[in-house]
Amino acid sequence: MVLLKWLVCQLVLFASLSHAFTDYLLKKCAQSGFCHRNRVYSDNIAKSHHCYYKLDAQSIAHDPLQNSLSATIIKTIPRLDGADIAVELPFSLSFLQDHSVRFTIDEKERTVASGGSLLASQRYNETWMYAFDEKFHDEANKTNFPELRFAKQEHSTDSLWSRLSSFLTHSNSTTDTIHLQNGNISLEILTEPFQLKIYWQNSLRLIVNERNFLNIEHQRSKEENFAHVLPEETTFNMFKDDFMYSKHDTMPLGPESVALDFTFFQSTNLFGIPEHPTSLRLMDTSQGEPYRLFNVDVFEYNIGTTQPMYGSIPFMFSSSSTSVFWVNAADTWVDIKYDTQQNKTMTHWISENGVVDVVISLGQDIPAVIDKFTDLTGRPFLPPMSSIGYHQCRWNYNDETDVLTVDAQMDANEIPYDFIWLDLEYTNDKKYFTWKRNSFPNPKRLLSKLNKLGRNLVVLIDPHLKKGYEISDSVINENVAVKDHNGNDYVGHCWPGNSIWIDTMSEYGQKIWKSFFEKFMDLPADLTNLFIWNDMNEPSIFDGPETTAPKDLIHDNHTEERSIHNLYGLSVHEATYDAVKSIYSSSDKRPFLLTRAFFAGSQRTAATWTGDNVATWDYLKISIPMVLSNNVAGMPFIGADIAGFAEDPTPELIARWYQAGLWYPFFRAHAHIDTKRREPYLFDDPLKSIVRDTIQLRYFLLPTLYTMFYKSSTTGFPIMNPMFIEHPEFPELYDIDNQFYWGDSGLLIKPVTDPGQSEIEMIFPPGVFYDFESMASFVNTGADPAVKIIPTPLDKIPFFIEGGHIITIKDKYRRSSKLMKNDPYVLVIAPDVKGHAVGDLYVDDGETFGYQRGEYAKTRFVLEDGHILKNVPSHTPDNLMDIHNDVLRNTNIEKIIVAKNELQRDIALKDSVTIKQGGEERSFPTKLSHEDDNKIIIMNPMLDITENWELIF
Ligand SMILES: *[C@@H]1O[C@H](CO)[C@@H](O)[C@H](O)[C@H]1NC(C)=O
Ligand SMILES: *[C@@H]1O[C@H](CO)[C@@H](O)[C@H](O)[C@H]1NC(C)=O
Ligand SMILES: *[C@@H]1O[C@H](CO)[C@@H](O)[C@H](O)[C@H]1NC(C)=O
Ligand SMILES: *[C@@H]1O[C@H](CO)[C@@H](O)[C@H](O)[C@H]1NC(C)=O
Ligand SMILES: *[C@@H]1O[C@H](CO)[C@@H](O)[C@H](O)[C@H]1NC(C)=O
Q1: Partner of 293 for a Cys bridge, out of 112, 332, 541, 553, CB 3.0 to 4.6 A?
Q2: Catalytic sites, residue numbers
Q3: Domain membership of residue 220 as a residue range
C-alpha cells in the first residue's frame, strides 16, 4: 500500500501519464555516475584490450586457520613520468560449501579504520552477515569451518599447498595458472590478466573477468583525481551527482564503485535477480537499460522495464546450473548479453560501493543450485498453515464493525478465509503502535472474536515514525534514528508527514524496535492471532531522491545508507519477526510476517508481494513471471494483490485474477482506498460463485500446498515452479512463463490472463495428463512438448495433473483452515502410462515450532502396476499417540480417486480390495466404483497415513 500522491501533486506538471509510474523519478544508467562510468569503461576496454589488474603470484598465501587462499591483485595506473600508481587489492578465495566457491576483493588502503570521522573509511563488507544464514556466521570467526577444503578429500590442504607452491616455482610464463579441485568443481586462477575459470566435471561453466571489466574505483582525492584515471575511464559524476532528485548527495568518499564481468558457458538462458516486472527468462540488455537492483517504492510500476522495484535478490543462475550470488547491498546494475552462436552469456555487475564478494555455485541441475543458495542464505520459513489460506485485505477496513461484518459475510456466503488485514488507517493519526480509539476501542475483543474460528488479524507497522509522539520521541532519545550526513536525526516525508526512521541496522535500534512490539502486543496468553505487515521499508520517502533515502544517510553510527540500502528492509522485518516470535514464545507460535522490501535472506522470516499493481489484464499477466522469479531465487512465499490494487477491476478480470491468484503461494486480495468495495460476497452471480469456488479449491488443495511449503523450507524448491525446472530437457520450455507447475506435485496450470478468452493454448510435455476437474485424460505420445487447445469458459481454470503423481486433498468446505484439521484425507492418483505414480504428504500442527522437535508426519504414496498402492511413512512423531488427538487429529484416508488411463480400464468392479498390513493380508469390503469413464473411487478404505500398508485393487 503506497501512494505517491504527495509527490504527484508536487510534480503535477510532469505527470503526463495516466497511471504509469513516474519514470523520471528514477535514474537511467546514463544518469547514474557509477553505472555510466562502468558502461563506458567496459566499452573502451573491449576496444583497447588493456588489462590493468593482475594477481601478484608472489603474494599468494594460504591461511590454514581460515582455510582460504589469499593474494593481492594489483591495479596499475600507468603514468607518463613512469611513476605508475599501484593499488593493492586484497583477494581471498575459499570453498564455502560443497560445490560453492567464494571470493572477495577489497581495497588495502581502505581496510584500516581512520578515526575521527562520522563515516567508516572502510569499504562495507558486512552484507554477507545479513544475507547468510546464521549457521555460516560461525565460519566468520574462523573456528567452525569443516566444509572448506582445497583438494580432493584424499589430499590434505598442506599437501595441496606444497603442490601449488612447486607449480608456481616451476612456472615459466608471465601468466601463471593455479589449479584447484574440490570434488566435481575445478578452478583455475589466472594471474595476468586476473581471471577465474570454473569447471563442473571438467566442463567449463563460468569465467570471471573474461572481458576485463573488473573495475575497483580506488580511493583518491578530488584534487588528485586526474592522476588516478585510466584512459578508458570517464570522470562523469565522480564527486557529485547531478541527477535532478539526488543532487544534494554529498558523496563524501567520491568514486568507489566495484564492477566485474561473469561469462556463463553452455547456456543462453539466465534467471533470477528479482524484483522486476519482466519475463522470467532475463532479457538481453545490451541495447537498453541494465537490470537495476535498488529497493524503491514504485507505485503502479511500468511493466516490461528493468527498473528497480521494492526488493532485490542479487542471485542469478543459468540453465547450465551455474549461479552467481553478488553479495552486495548497494545500488547495483546488471548487464546481460546473450551469444547464441557461442552458446554463452556475458554479464556485467556494477555496484556503487562495498567490496566484491561473490559466491559461485554449481550443481547437477537447477534445483541443486537453488538448494545451495538457500542453504547459504537460509531456508524459506515454514509458514503457519492458516497463512497459506486466503487473506482478505483492503485499504481500509474502517472499524471493528466493518471487520466483523466482513467476517460474518464471508461465512454467510461460504467463502473460507483465514486472515483479515488492517492497513494504515487503523492507527491513531498514522502513529504506528497506536489504535484509532473510536474505531478500534477494544482490539483484544476483536482478536478474541476472530480467534474463535482460528482467524488472524494483520496490522501495518512501517519504519517511518511520525515526529512528536511517544514512539518517535523514544527513538530520538535512545539515539536510534537514522542520521543525516551531519549526524543529526534525519527527517523526511511519509504518510504521517514529517517522520524519522528507526535504525534497525543498529543492534540497539533492533532492541528498541522490539520493545515497541512488546508493549503494543501485550495480549492475553490465548491471543496469538495478531501479526504484522512491514510496508514502505525500502524505505519509501516521499521527498527523498528516487522516492527513497538519500544515499549519504548514516546508520549505526558509521555506515552509509549507500552501502546497505538494499539491506535496510530486511533489517526492519527481521527485527519485527524476532519481536513477534519472542512475544509468542510461550505458545511456541510461528509468526507470519509480510514485508514489501526484501534482500537475499528475507525468505527466512517473511513473505512478500509484488507491490502496488493495477487492476488491468497486463498486471495480471506480469504477476506470473514475477512470482516465478522470486520462487527460483529462494523466496517463494509471494503473491500479487488480487484483483489489482489500484483502480476498479471488471467482473471478468476479478474472476480470472482469483483463478490465477489461487496458485500464488501468498493468496491475498487487496484494494486501494479509492476503489469500490470488492469483498467477494458483494459480487453478483455467477461471479460470486466463481470466486467462492476458487477460494474453496485453494482450501481443498492445502495439504498439497503445505507439503510443498515444507519441501521448500528444507531445500528451497520453488512452489510456483517454472516448466523448465520440471523438464529441463526441452529447450523450448525455458521461455515459458505463463504456465507453470505447482512445486513437484504434478499440477500443471495455465491461468487465463486475457479478456474474452474462450480457449487457450497450453503446452504439454510428453506423457499423460488429466484434467483435474473431470479426470479426462489425453496422452502426448510425441517426443517433444505439444500444444493443445483448452476451452476456457469463465468458470474454468485450466489445470491438469501430470501422470506419475499422487496428491492429497481435503474436500469439505470449512470456514477456516483450522476447522479443516479434523477432516480426513482424499488421495488423487494420476498414473503415468505404465501405471506408476508417486506423491508426498507432510503434516504437522500447522501452528507451532513443534515440527522442529520431530512432531510431524511424513509419508510417500506409491502406485505400482496401476493397481497396487503403497504407503511408506518416513517419519512419524515418537509421541504420536499423545499428540494424535491434537496435532494430527485425523490421519485417515476417506477416499481414493484413481484417474483412469488405458491400464486402469481393465480393473473390474469389485466389492472388496486387499489390504496388506503388519505382515497380514486381508480382504476389505469397500465400494470400488467406476464413477464414470475417467475415474475409480475407493471409499472409506480405513487406512491411516502414519502406517505402513499396501492396498491392492
Ligand atoms: C571487514 O574488513 C576488515 C578490514 O579488512 C576486517 O578487519 C573485518 O574482519 C571484515 N569484516 C567482515 C565482517 O568480514
Ligand atoms: C564463534 O561464534 C560462535 C557463535 O556465534 C561463538 O559461540 C563462539 O564463541 C565464536 N568463537 C570465537 C573463537 O570467537
Ligand atoms: C612455458 O610453459 C608453457 C606451458 O605453460 C610451454 O608451452 C612452453 O613451452 C614453456 N616455455 C619454456 C621456454 O619452457
Ligand atoms: C548449449 O549448451 C547446452 C549444454 O551443453 C546444450 O544442452 C545446448 O544444446 C547448447 N545449445 C546450443 C544452441 O548449442
Ligand atoms: C557514535 O559515535 C560518536 C562519535 O564517535 C560517539 O560519541 C557516540 O557515543 C556513538 N554513538 C553510539 C550510539 O554508538
Answers
A1: 332
A2: 535, 538, 612
A3: 29-377
